[in-house]
Design a protein that fits this description.
Layout lengths: L3 H18 L16 E9 L2 E12 L7 E9 L1 H6 L2 E9 L5 E10 L2 E10 L4 E8 L4 E9 L7 H8 L9 E7 L4 E16 L2 E10 L12 E7 L6 E7 L6 E9 L3
Antiparallel strand pairs: 1-2, 1-14, 2-3, 3-4, 4-5, 5-6, 6-7, 7-8, 9-10, 10-11, 11-12, 12-13, 13-14
């Protein structure tokens, strides 16, 4: 049975990894843009148990044609939730090119409650980061960094990826920022594979994003994402491979709510 320390590490990776897993963009042949209105449901599995559930919901941003708001909701369930409850919301505001203009995060993890706001100023090429502790009513971190005029957060990058393709075995570079750091990551298109999920059987392409290991995130891990090999380019599966103590976290599509 997993210990409390492992549960805490797993919940941390559930949150960070799902956001990180979304962070992919490849540059080559174009596909059609993803619909503004989408709703995907996922299950998160760790050590053969269901550890959490996630929903990714996209909608048209009011007052700006072609702009979207993407919400990622993450909740722990079952044994994991009883030992270390997680209830997180991550919201990104994206323009028509999936460049990020603002991010809002509210996280409740165990006894910790945090709220984070990040604004991206394309004209100044700056990102302003503000993280607050809601329990202590104090500022945890506030900083400003340089970013490219068009930069992707993790959800904007996922939507951008769905409009692109790259030959198998090739790499692409992507400018990304989490508001605290801005780097260019490498992404590799690796294999075509069949993926079976509760939502169905899919022909998909597996990508690896080099986000961890002192890149955008310091932790050691390998990150993979599977997108369907068709015009919809649905994100059907994510995996984060960690050290032996934690193992692999799998995020699998259970339902395309608007299908």
């Amino acid at each position: 049975m997993p210990g409390t320390s492992q549960i805490c590490h797993t919940q941390y990776f559930m949150r960070v990894s799902f956001f990180a897993l979304s962070g992919l963009l490849l540059a080559s042949q174009s596909f059609g843009a993803a619909p503004l209105a989408e709703h995907f449901s996922y299950t998160i599995e760790w050590k053969l148990i269901e550890a959490g559930r996630a929903q990714m919901i996209s909608s048209a941003a009011p007052g700006s044609a072609g702009h979207r708001q993407v919400d990622l909701k993450l909740q722990s369930v079952g044994l994991v939730s009883r030992l270390y409850k997680v209830d997180d919301l991550y919201r990104a505001s994206l323009d028509g090119s999936n460049c990020v203009s603002a991010v809002f995060m509210k996280s409740e993890e165990g006894r910790r409650q945090r709220e984070t706001r990040i604004t991206f100023d394309a004209s100044r090429r700056k990102a302003n980061y503000l993280e607050q502790d809601l329990v202590k009513n104090s500022v945890v971190l506030q900083k400003e960094i340089d970013v490219p005029a068009c930069v992707h957060d993790v959800l904007g990058a996922l939507y951008a990826l769905r409009t692109k393709n790259v030959p198998l075995g090739h790499f692409a570079d992507l400018p990304m920022s989490d508001g605290k750091k801005s780097i260019t990551i490498k992404v590799e298109a690796q294999e075509r594979e069949e993926v079976k999920t509760p939502a169905g059987k899919f022909q998909a392409v597996r990508y690896e994003a080099f986000l961890f290991n002192n890149q955008l995130y310091r932790r050691k891990a390998r990150v993979f994402v599977w997108l369907t090999d068709d015009d919809r380019r649905l994100p059907v599966q994510f995996r984060v491979r960690l050290g032996l103590a934690v193992g692999t976290i799998s995020v699998t599509l259970t339902k395309d709510e608007l299908k």
